[in-house]
Amino acid sequence: MKHSADVRICNKLGLHLRAAAAFARVAERFRSEITLSHGPVAANGKSIISLVTLAAGIGSELRIEAEGPDATEAVAALEELVKQRFGESS
Amino acid sequence: MNRINPERRGLAASPGIAIGPAFVLRRERLVIPEYLIREDQTDSEVRRLERAFRDTRARLESIREGMKDSGIVGDIFDAQFLFLRDPTLLEHAIRNIQKDRLNAEWALQRELRRLEALFESMADPYIRERSSDVAFVVRRVLQALMGREPEGLKNAPPGVIVVAEELSTAELAQVPRGQLLAFVTEGGSRTSHVTIVARGLEIPAVVGVGGDVVRNLADGTTLIVDGHAGLVITEASPEQIAEYRRRRSTRHALERRLLRYTTLPAETRDGVRIRTLANVDQVGEIPDAVRYGAEGIGLYRTEFLFMNRRDLPDEEEQVAAYRDILKAMAPHSAVIRTLDLGGEKVPAGFSVGDEPNPALGLRGVRLSVGRPDLFGAQLRALLRASVEGHLKILVPMVSNIGEVEFARRELEAARAALREAGREFAPNVEFGVMIETPAAALIADAIAPKVDFLSIGTNDLLQYTLAVDRTNEHVAYLYEPLHPANLRLLQQVCQAARREGILVSMCGEMAGDPLNCWILMALGVGELSMAPFSIPLIKKILRQSTAAEARDLLAAVLRMGSGQDIRACVEAHMRSRFPTEFEGLRASG
What we know:
The complex is a heterodimer of chains A (90) and B (589). With 90 residues, chain A is α+β, with helices and mostly antiparallel strands. In chain A, 33% of the residues lie in helices and 27% in strands.
């Protein structure tokens, strides 16, 4: 099963280390393979190193893709995380 | 040069004084074996690598467990942990084994090199710095692969001062709390992880002392670490040791008593109120500043946004950074200074060429006049962020009225542009300029009607007024904040502001030295901005003073013609009035 969603980074620091860590932590909970892409660059959603190197600042448009048994749930959870600014206060 | 300079200056990373024997962390040079394996060996090589990762994880896990109760370092440590668990790191290393037949150590080392290059190319300095976290994690795995014990502080005896080229938070965390007196690192900055941890653990630390300390220092050498001044003394005389001991105990007692002043206003017995503000370089410093009793930010320098990167931050990125600051400080005000670059602080994307005399060159508002596009973007970003708190915009390095008018015009243009675009900004944004050239101080009466506030930058004002570069050891003795020339300039500025009914604030080191607080209050400076940990003492002194006695002291010193005499008079006076406070602080800066 394959699922995807487009999101916009709205926390001030962008997809910096802590945000990437939060993303990877949530992604790890799912069995699906998760990809986050920023334009032509794609990152493994479970890899903080890979995520950080996307260099996605505030306002960046990203695509979350998941493939696997829990793809729908994974995309929903990650979309929510990005919308909630990675659980940061702002 | 195989002896190290007995005094080393670094960055004051975490306050406090420590005296004790050095424990020098010498890192073994890991010689990575590199050989090709046979195809039938790849599976066992992959397993060997996976086992090393597992073992390292288990070890770091138990370290983390041990530091849970410290409660401060968890987050930072988690980041290193995530690198260790990161699928990219392991998968790529495995691919190097399977495809290129590299042995496990070589395979991992090659992946590290790739990541380091990748991180190095990132624009964000914070992310670039994380490269060292990955390197640390990889080093631990390599040591596990090679059957080496990771060097560390586990064998450090209690009561030592750790000296190292670099320290990781995991290493620091291995030492039971209370066992480490202080630490000193050759590298590092005020934003390094270890610096943050040191402040959390409340142990003194000096970082960035420069090269070759580790190589030339014997274990057990008695060190003095002064985390207030950023000073490390390696060959201390018995007198120095005695002096610092005394200073340490006075300081401890004082600090404990001072903490209750953090929440009280800096108000004299006869009702004169001074606002105490913090100089802040990073949003992360704001909680600390508030804890020490800051009633706002007196100076936030935006240069940090522009430095250590190849491109320039655009308007959006700036909006995000300024919003962070304003929001964290709200409802208190934050003074954000527009770009002051020049001389050695030149970011990528700016080329002003080599200047023979950068202090007198193209910097501050002069650069903004030359690049109104950049200045305009910064002003728009500041205004857009202003809805989050109470913003005061400060323009540096003005030396004539034309520059003040230019900045005002640009600010009006930025407001108009935002209105046009339907963007929101706060109506109460204040506009001020920095008085840091003698020229600006002397025409303060002409400047004051055109601004909402004035901020005196004493470090530059003194350098220009006295014609002294205080980092030049031959003339540093001439640097005297209480020089009558300086006091007279300050007096002119305060008088001009009073006539216009606007506020004068002061940032720069003169403002944070408790010795000067009477003089500055009597001159009419209404806000003092300083390093956060200086705030409680200034509050205490002002609360136990009257403005009347401060005015008497000022009147007396304004009649004197010599800076030395003025200093002697102020010191004698303050010391007799506040014996304990000034005992503990003597010569700490």
